[in-house]
Amino acid sequence: MKLPKLSLYIHIPWCLKKCPYCDFYSQSIKKRIPEKKYIKNLILDLEKDLKFAQSRKIYSIFIGGGTPNLIQPKYIKILIKEIKKRTIFSKNIEITLESNPESINKNFFFKYKLAGINRISLGIQSFNEKILKNIQRKYSYENLIKKIKIIKKINFKNINFDLMYGLPNQKLKHIKFDINTAISLKPSHISWYQLCIEKNTPFYKNTPILPKENKINIMQKNGKKILKKNKFYQYEISSYSKKNNQCKHNINYWKYGDYIGIGCGSHGKITLSNKKIIRTYKNKNIYEFLNGKHIKKISFINKEDRLLEFFMNNFRLNKPCSRKNFKNFTGINEKYIKKEISKAIQKKYIIQKKKYWKTTKLGKLFLNNLLEIFIKK
Ligand code: SF4
User: Fold this and answer.
1) How many folded domains does the chain comprise?
2) How many Å is the Cα radius of gyration of the chain?
3) Residue 135 Cβ < 6 Å to ligand 1
């Protein structure tokens, strides 16, 4: 069984303030972040997971959160340096720092670049102040543009903007404004996704009035049209990029690649030499994590889950899904899904070629129905 590419996800679990729609694991800063101790524990956490990874090169690194740009550059520099000492970086490694525009500081970003960060992902959500207020984000349009221009001046070539649709009181005119403003600022990548009300968030308990489904469909159609016209190519359900600027890290997830997850509340997926695949879950308790209790649980991914996870991820991509990768990355023989594949073809959700499967327009439209076929009863 060929091993998939290996990425590294690093979780920074602090934010200035919790947003009411967000279910990522993070907490509002109450006092100073214990940066030095946290970075030291991230490295210790990594050392434990590296024994599962069989000296594979690191294909991409994503420092996410939370708000990683709250961490001082000197600690990001130490972090990257210490990872590099213990692993081999692949040529052209992509190293992303997820950032909140509210806390952009010119000096910090200049030094992040020197430390090795080569991709910035900015959580903008909207350029409209009223819409931002509805999701309890407080920055002004002018300030937002000013902060983005700082990043552009530092000359980060690879910049992603996260934008959302389906937000409270959002209308078609807001969507057009958001996307056109984003395009005018020339990012290389735009992630444009719909607000989902997740359990355990304040919005789940007190859900604001959201745009109706038919309005959301119109927003979606129009947004896609503007992005396409401006040469942002859709390569995944919510991801659009300029040519050759797709996010390597996320593509590895969607191809069912491996990733080591380090940091409080993170998780990972690693294929072992005996072909078994493990999922690692890290401790969510920050105090315990800082005191060396990094791992919460490690479990094997069973055959049924491997099968479903492979298709759940691969069918998000606009590219065909490799049959060889199915065998190599799940360790499952195609015979095991013969019935399911026939059913998906018969329903006209996918087509099958010698080397790949590809979702049809119908399959994309009814993705949940297509995936249901692969749930082994
Ligand atoms: S800043 Fe980002 S990670 Fe933090 S709570 Fe808001 S959406 Fe979540």
Assistant:
1) 2
2) 21
3) no
